[in-house]
Design a protein that fits this description.
It is built from two helices and five strands, in the order H-E-E-E-H-E-E. The protein has a five-stranded antiparallel β-sheet, with helices on one face. The structure holds adenosine monophosphate (AMP).
Length: 113
């Protein structure tokens, strides 16, 4: 069994507030939201970070970017939003399963660092 928090969430072993699911992608609300809307979008297949994306596994990443506009629309993000992925130590990635933060619902900070 995968010893990964987000794999356990995808499997339903740890509860989450699901906002979207298909065969490749799972999306759920961040437990510590940084904005009025803060959704995490993850590939169902374990992939440690953006640094591990290859031609062989990028279909789930492509799907994530296809569903982001759908989730944003469903969440009422009509005035824009931000998509972020943290990668590795310097990127301050805390959960080692590739995930994209979808943030919106307010005017976000111009600072990215
Ligand atoms: P990162 O720092 O980019 O790796 O982001 C990990 C995110 O996962 C953080 O924003 C956390 O608040 C979020 N998080 C951690 N545990 C959970 C959980 N059980 N359910 C939802 N979000 C979580």
């Amino acid at each position: 069994m995968c010893d990964c928090l987000f794999c356990k969430i995808i499997a339903g072993d740890i509860p989450s507030s699901k906002v979207y699911e298909d065969d490749l992608v799972y999306a759920f609300r961040d437990i510590q939201p940084m904005a009025p809307v803060h959704v995490l979008i993850v590939p169902k297949t374990h992939l440690p970070s953006a640094d591990g994306v290859t031609a062989a596994n990028s279909a789930s990443v492509a799907r994530i970017f296809e569903v982001i506009p759908q989730i944003a629309k469903a969440e009422g993000l009509t005035n824009g939003y931000r998509v972020i992925t943290n990668c590795g130590e310097d990127g301050c990635q805390s959960v080692k399963h590739l995930h994209f933060h979808l943030l919106g619902g307010k005017k976000l900070s111009e600072k990215l660092d």
